[in-house]
Amino acid sequence: SNFGIRESLKRLGISEVNSGVTTGTQWFECKGNITSSYSPIDDSEIAKVVNADINDYEKVLDTAQEAFKQWKKVPAPARGEVVRQIGNALREAKEDLGKLVSFEMGKIYQEGLGEVQEMIDICDFAVGLSRQLYGFTMHSERPDHKMMDQYHPLGVVGVISAFNFPVAVWAWNAMIAAVCGDVVIWKPSSKVPLCALACQNIIQKVLKDNDVPEGVFNLVVAKSSVMGDNFIEDKRVPLISVTGSTAIGKRVAEKVGARLGRTIAELGGNNAIIVAPSADLDMAIPGIVFGSVGTAGQRCTSTRRLIIHEDIYDDVKNRLLNAYAQVEKKIGNPLDPSTLVGPVIDKDAVKIYKTALAEVKKAGGQVVFGDKVLKGNYVLPSFCEVENHWQIVQDESFVPVLYIMKYNTLDQAIAMHNDVPQGLSSSIFTMNMREAQTFLSTVGSDCGIANVNIGTSGAEIGGAFGGEKETGGGRESGSDSWKTYMRRQTNTINYGTDLPLAQGIKFDL
Ligand code: NAD
Questions:
Q1: Which residue puts its alpha carbon closest to atom 21 of ligand 1?
Q2: Cβ neighbours around 249 below 10 Å, total
Q3: Residue 53, CB half-sphere, CA atoms under 13 Å: how many?
C-alpha cells in the first residue's frame, strides 16, 4: 500500500517508536517526551520519536566537543573520503529516502528523489573541496617575510533545518562542515523528524567502517524548550546555520549575535519573475508554473510574484489559466508518479492559504484561479491580480498562491521587484540583452540569486545559496561558502635576521 512506503521505512530503519538522538552510530535511550510524525497525505501517524531532554542534549554536546579534538586532526582529504562513502550510501538509499521525504513532507516523489540527488551532489562537491581549502599567500612589505591565510576547523556547528527540505539542508551544511573539520549537531524540524533519523541510519555503516569518532555527525530531535534557546545561546557552538522563517531567523541571529557567535541565516523569500515583452513564453510559462505550484508552493525559492509587461499581460494570464487548469487534474497523492502537486504540510498551512486569499480579496484583488480547499491538506494552487505594496503581497505566504501584476517600463518593474522586505531568488524572461544585463547589474535585482530565462526555484549546489535583506544574508552550498565553516588565520613569518616593524615604525631600544 502507498507505493511500498512501509518496505522503505523498514529498510531505512524506522520502527514504530524511535530514539531521536544519536552521536553517530549509537542511538540514545532518550528521556524526553514522545512525539508523533504524521503524513500530510492523509494525516495518518507514521511513527513515534522519543525526544531529547536537556541531559541528552548535554551528553551530545560533550561527545561532539571530544570528537572535534580528534576530527580536526584528520587530514582534510581523509575527511573527504568519509564524505565520498556517505555519497555512495545515499546513492544506494536514494529511492527509499526519496519516498520517505515524499511521504513525510508531501512533495512529489520526483522532487523527493531530486532532494536526495542534491545530497549526493553536495557530497561530490565536498570531496573535491577537501583538497581545495585554499588560502592566499601575500607579499609582505618587510624584507625576508612571508604572509599567508590559513583556514582551520571551527568547532561544533549547529544546523537548524526547515520542514520543506527535510534532508538536503542538513547535507548542504553537514558535508561541507565535515570536510572543513567541524562536527555537526542537527536539530531537524519537528514536522519531519523521521527523514532525519533515516539519514543518520544511512550514514551509520560508513561511520563504523571508517572509525569516525562518535560525535562528528549528531542528531537531536527535541522540543524548542530543549533545543531552542539552550542551543542558540550555547557558547560551545561557534556557528549556527538556521534555515526557516524570518521570525525564527531573527531570534536565532539576535541570540547568537549577543554572544558574538556566527550565524548562517537562510530565511524566507518573496521571489519574483519579470516577464518582458520579448520573453519566450513557451519557456517562461513552464518555468513560472513549476516555480509557483511545485512543492505545493513550499520552497523558499517558490515563485510568489509575477511582474508582467502590460503588452503581453492578457496573453500570459490566459496561458497561466490554461496551465493551472492542467495542474488541477494532477493534484493528489505525492507518491503516485502521475501527481504534479501534493498536499501542503498541515492544517496550519491550509489556514495560511485561506487567509492569504481572504486578504487579497479584502484589499480589492482579483482571484483569477484557485481559492479552493480540496480535502484534508490538499489545496488548489491559486493566482491573483494584486498590487505590490499590499501587506499580503509583501509577506511570504508559504503556500501555492501566486500574485500577478503589470508593468510599463523596466525601471518600474525592477523597482516593484525589489520593493519587498526579502531578497532570495529572482529572474527575468527576456530575449533583450540590455534588459537581461540591466537585471543582473548593480541597478537590477537585489536578491542573492538572479537568473535569466530560467525560473526562481531549483538552484544548483555549485553556486552559493542564500539571499539578502530579511532572507538573512547567509550563504551555503557551493562556491566559497565553505569559508564560513572555518576559522581564518593570517600568518606572518620572518625568515631573516632583523626585526623590521610594519609601517616602517622605528622603536630603538
Ligand atoms: P520555521 O521557522 O517554522 O522553523 C524552522 C526551524 O526552526 C525548525 O527546525 C523549527 O523547529 C526551529 N525553531 C522553531 N523555534 C525555534 C527556537 N525558538 N529556537 C531555535 N529553533 C527554533 O520554518 P518552517 O516552517 O520549517 O520552514 C519554512 C520557512 O523556511 C519559510 O519561510 C522558507 O522560506 C524558509 N526556508 C528558507 C530557505 C533558504 O535557504 N533561504 C530554505 C528552506 C526554507
A1: 228
A2: 23
A3: 7
| Distance from the alpha carbon of residue 501 to the mean position of ligand 1, in angstroms | 50
Q: How many helices (H) and strands (E) does the chain have?
A: 15, 25
What's CA 277's distance to the chain center, in Å?
Answer: 33
Return d(Cα 132, Cα 225) in angstroms, integer.
40
Does 398 contact ligand 1 (Cβ within 6 A)?
yes
The whole-angstrom distance between residue 408's C-alpha and the CA centroid of its chain comes to 34
Classified as helix, coil or strand, 494 is: strand
Q: Name the region of 466 (left: φ>0; alpha: ψ -120 to 50; beta: rest).
A: left
Mark whether 115 is an active-site residue: no
ipTM given for this complex: 0.98
Ligand 1 lined by 165 (C-beta under 6 Å): yes
Atom of ligand 1 nearest to the CA of 248: 2
Low-confidence ranges of the chain (pLDDT < 50): none
> Is the torsion defined by CA of 249, 292, 306, 405 positive or negative?
negative
How confident is the model at residue 1, as a pLDDT? 66
**pLDDT tens-digit profile of 231-278?**
999 999 999 999 999 999 999 999 999 999 999 999 999 999 999 999
Q: pTM score, two decimals? A: 0.98
CA distance 471 to 468: 5
The CA 247 to ligand 1 mean position distance, Å, reads: 8
